[in-house]
Design brief:
This protein is of the alpha/beta class. About 40% of the residues lie in helices and about 15% in strands. The chain has a five-stranded mixed β-sheet. A hairpin with an 8-residue loop joins strand 1 and strand 2. The longest helix has 22 residues, at about 140-160.
Length: about 200
Amino acid sequence: MVGMKWLVGIDEAGRGPLAGPVAVAVFAILDRSSTSIQKVLRVAEVKDSKKLSEGKREEVYGRLCELRDAGEVLFACSLVSARVIDKVGITKAVKIALARSLQKLALCPRDCDVRLDGLLRAPSVYKKQRTIIRGDDTVSAISAASIVAKVTRDRYMRKLAKKYPDYVFQKHKGYGTKSHYDLILANGLCALHRRSYLSKIRTLA
């Protein structure tokens, strides 16, 4: 991929849940001067993942996969577990996931124009980078990354729900809903729970 120019969007999903991993996705659009960006917007109907229903996110994700298979874009997503979050903290866990996703794409840093959502930062080797507040709602590459991160994490939580059926993770995805708290009070904590987020009820572990 050396010599190619990439517009790179980065976003995360799962910073706040009580259980499950945090996910960081990197989405790269080839040659920002080409028609690729408009194609992503038009074909995939990319928006901030939080503004889409679960079904719509899955539909858009499928379209992004088609663009990837056509060679228009690249993307990768990495998950960092609740155990690591408890050990190093959520900020460091996000940095770990972000670095892993960039490594998966193996893009030359000097060929990347990086845009990140919120307070995210890429490794310093990426000289051309900018963090944009609410970037997931204004920058197509970040919006696409937000969808990839959210869909990847949601699928993981649905898969793990089969292993931990008492917690109904397929519904709340680990977020702190009333029903999730009720299930924790009834069943205690499982291996997916972030104990650092649940210090007041860790005695149930």
